Amino acid sequence: MFDRYEAGEQAVLVHIEFPNEGDREDLQELEMLVSSAGVNALTIVQGSRQSPHAKFFVGSGKAEEIAEIVKIHDADVIIFNHELSPSQERNLEAICKCRVLDRTSLILDIFAQRARTHEGKLQVELAQLRHISTRLIRGWTHLERQKGGIGLRGPGETQLETDRRLIRGKIKNILKRLEKVAKQREQGRRARNRNEIPTVSLVGYTNAGKSTLFNRITDSDVYAADQLFATLDPTLRKIEVPDLGSTILADTVGFIRHLPHDLVAAFKSTLAETREADLQLHVVDVADARRQENIEQVQDVLREIDADDVPQLLVYNKIDLVEEISPRIDRNDEGRPIRVWLSAQTGVGCELLLQAIGECLAEQMFDENMCIPPKLGRLQGALYRLNAVQKESFDEHGNWLLDVRLPMSDWQRLKKEFGEQITELVV
């Protein structure tokens, strides 16, 4: 048995290059993850392979080399910048006589350190339990295996079965509690929809400056730091957008390459703020040489959580770190804002972002005057139920003259209910 890994330990990092793009990880990102976890990296072992070794992931020769380096540096833990199978972890621990963590375990540990709210802690615990459940056997290799025959049955497998049953029960309990929290969130979203308050969600690669931008726009004090996954728990604040009014701005967890599936599944309810938003602000670190790769990684995660069809505005942040870039709004051929250049740290360009948000959301609003005859009183009632009537008067024929403003999605639903002919009532 090895002691469980704790932040602050001395680690040997392992990074292997593969020719297949899908298997590649970023070494610089591993160093940032390790630093964010509070681990001291003693040295980095690098190598290259065509494909992972079935037994040790790195090959027997490299595994022995790692074991020797661990012995020389007296390291507490080995951290791989890759996902290992339970058997690979077990085999590496046996030859290195040291605790072995893969990339997924490291990210889960960081999430466990950062979660602050009840929901965040539940989501991280759920992801950890799902991950640990596949690796239980490693912790009981010092016990006898169950054998056939009277008097020859060891305690190992019995204990494993007990642990698995306990974990299954705990996962079931957490899922119930998360379902309750998700329902509360859904009620909040429905209330905002009834009050016609649009939601804007911040998305982006971790450490792109989302929380700094959130604080700048909302005048809040959400925790922001130059580290990966500084923000886990979603935060919502009301802001005032020019020519639009009240809007909800949501700050959510940052994304990363190959974000563990257990985490994506656990954070589904949190990420629903992104999926249900009226507009996504995709924050990009313009000073990062890998910004295009990061943009693609974020889009991959958005596809995974079914949030890739939400209208999006790119926000190129940190222009203060790049010479000869001034704050501005880039537009497409139709004049719609598609990109805003700013610095959340200095505040330069943030007023342009609010302008662009207002323009983008205005495109998603039906804002017209309508003349509704008395025979269509049901339509007038439906508009009132949607809080869409801004002003009402009557003409000499008894028709309702309404100033109407409502989300385009609600207008489309009205057209389905009352027929396309209601467009003829727009004056």
Please give the number of β-strands. Answer: 14
CATH class wording of the largest domain: Alpha Beta
N- and C-termini, Cα separation:
77 Å
Q: Into which percentage range does the β-strand content fall? A: 15-25%
- Radius of gyration, in Å, reads 27 Å
Spatial order of strands in the largest sheet: 6-7-5-8-9-11-10
CATH H-level homologous superfamily name of the largest domain:
P-loop containing nucleotide triphosphate hydrolases
Can you offer a commentary on this structure?
Belongs to the TRAFAC class OBG-HflX-like GTPase superfamily. HflX GTPase family. Mg(2+) binds at residues 211, 231. It comes from Pseudoalteromonas piratica. Keywords: Cytoplasm, GTP-binding, Magnesium, Metal-binding, Nucleotide-binding. Its cofactor is Mg(2+). The chain has 427 residues and is of the alpha/beta class. It has four domains: 10-114, GTPase HflX, N-terminal domain (Rossmann fold, 3-Layer(aba) Sandwich); 118-133 and 154-178; 197-363, P-loop containing nucleotide triphosphate hydrolases (Rossmann fold); 366-425, Alpha-Beta Plaits. It is built from 13 helices and 14 strands. It has helices at 27-36, 60-73, 86-96, 103-114, 118-132, 156-194, 210-218, 261-266, 268-275, 291-304, 350-363, 377-385, 408-418; strands at residues 10-17, 40-48, 77-80, 99-101, 199-204, 235-241, 245-251, 279-285, 312-317, 328-331, 337-341, 365-372, 389-394, 400-407. The strands form three sheets. Strands 6-7-5-8-9-11-10 form a seven-stranded mixed sheet, sandwiched between helices. A four-stranded parallel sheet has the order 2-1-3-4, sandwiched between helices. Strand 3, helix 3 (86-96) and strand 4 form a beta-alpha-beta unit. Helix 4 runs antiparallel to helix 5 and helix 5 (118-132) packs antiparallel against helix 6 (156-194). The radius of gyration is 27 Å and the shape is elongated. Residues 1-7 and 138-154 have low confidence and may be disordered.
